[in-house]
Amino acid sequence: MNLKDKKVFLTRPYKVVYKDGDRIIKVFTKEHGKANVFNEALCQARVEESGLDIPAVLEVSQIDGEWALAIEYVEGKTLEQVMKEDPENLEKYMEQFVDLQLAMHAKKAPRLTLQKDKFARKISSLKDTVDATVRYELHTRLDSMPNHTKLCHGDFNPSNVIVREDGTMTIVDWAHATQGNASGDAAITYLEFALKDQKTADLYLDLFCKKSDTAKQYVQKWLPIAAAAQLTKGIEEEKEFLTRWIDIIDFQ
């Protein structure tokens, strides 16, 4: 396939995303690794089996020696764009965002990786960033959390929600999907909001806890674990913020 005549849709450090008619083609750098590309395709295919309305995986292939993933294109704007264009209605959009997350959590995808296993691997990988005592406390807290099997996105934020022209929404980018605890998933979402704006993060958490009938303190117990998981992304400008979240919660 010749990509020179295809429209660049999105650029990230490890991938370039093109639009090709009714498909999106993600072309990954060699550093991203073949296994990661196949894992993303497999995760998305397993989420499709849950019955959730998401774009379909169409193909995994190689283009000019680099691995590529083709996914169904969904016409629309990201919810992040919609929120920025209409800030006066932020609370309305946030309610829709939380409703969509809860609809996702109501689904099951029993062949996905377990969330707690993935969190545990990420905590263990932080040997050069987090000292052994803190890693031990993080593992201890993680072990104590209830085992659930809800469908979790792992990176649920407004940039990963597409709003169609008719107002319906779909979720994209399932590379981090697991089956696990909804509040662990919400903790990641909260931190992603808090990195940009604390008031928006607080609005999100208030609505999530109200609509899901979850104690805010319970989601907060997940925050050090979620912060450690996010720290593994190695984004330098987020390091100080996430490290504070690992440290500020009393583990006792």
Structural account:
The chain is of the alpha+beta class and 252 residues long. It contains nine helices and ten strands. Helix 3 crosses helix 7, helix 4 runs antiparallel to helix 5 and helix 6 packs across helix 8. It is globular. The model has no long low-confidence stretch (mean pLDDT 94).
Topology:
Blueprint: E1 7-12, E2 15-20, E3 23-28, H1 34-48, E4 57-63, E5 66-72, E6 77-78, H2 79-85, H3 90-105, H4 115-124, H5 132-144, E7 150-152, E8 161-163, E9 169-171, E10 178-180, H6 182-194, H7 198-212, H8 216-231, H9 236-248
Antiparallel strand pairs: 1-2, 2-3, 3-5, 4-5, 6-8, 7-10, 8-9
Summarize the structure.
This protein has 252 residues and is an alpha+beta fold. It has nine helices and ten strands. Helix content is 47%, strand content 18%.
Taking Cα atoms only, what radius of gyration do you get, to the nearest Å? 18 Å
Biggest pleated sheet? 5 strands, antiparallel
Helix content: 40-55%
Q: Which band does the percent of strand residues land in?
A: 15-25%
Strands, total number: 10
- Provide the spatial order of strands within the biggest beta sheet: 1-2-3-5-4
Secondary-structure element series: EEEHEEEHHHHEEEEHHHH
N- and C-termini, Cα separation: 56 Å
The best one-word shape is: globular
Overall structural class, as computed from helix and strand content, comes to: alpha+beta
Question: Which residues form runs of ≥5 with pLDDT under 50?
Answer: none
Question: Kindly state the mean pLDDT as a whole number?
Answer: 94
Instruction: Count the DSSP helices.
Output: 9
